[in-house]
Amino acid sequence: MTETPDIIYTKVDESPELASASLFPIVRAFAAKAGINVETRDISLGGRVLAAVSDLIDGDFPDHLAELGELVKQPEANVIKLPNISASVPQLLATIKELQDQGFAVPDYPNDPTTDAERDIKARYDAVKGSAVNPVLR
To answer: Which has the least CB within 10 A, 41, 97, 102, 112?
Structure first.
């Protein structure tokens, strides 16, 4: 962390994102008056999917959840963890399709993997399903 106190504000999915995006400018404005920098980290399902397959696609998509997992172990950490979805397979499939529709070359979710590569991709995607965020940040 820097010498200036920082707060990390999480970017999340779906309806929680509507509320959190509305609150972010308010938090940032109040914190700025106190000389506190507020940064965001993307722990949305889409962000977690991109991070999970970052080495397989063009672009750099850091694993913000892993970063925050380490950060919250430090006594000076300040993280505003907002509500997020517990991703089901249908939500994961919809997110993968949405990312593909936006031009990201993320692989399809292999329901019945038959090769080592498919098993690897399935394992990566399975790691972002469910309540992947809460055990890391609580």
So the answer is: 112
Tokens for 86?
């517990």
Contact 118, 110 (CB under 8 A): yes
pLDDT in tens, 98-121: 999 999 999 999 999 999 999 999
Measured between alpha carbons, how far is 136 from 69 in angstroms, rounded to an integer? 5
Closest by CA position to 65, among listed 123, 136, 138: 136
The domain segmentation of the chain, as residue ranges, is 6-137
So what's the pLDDT on residue 84? 79
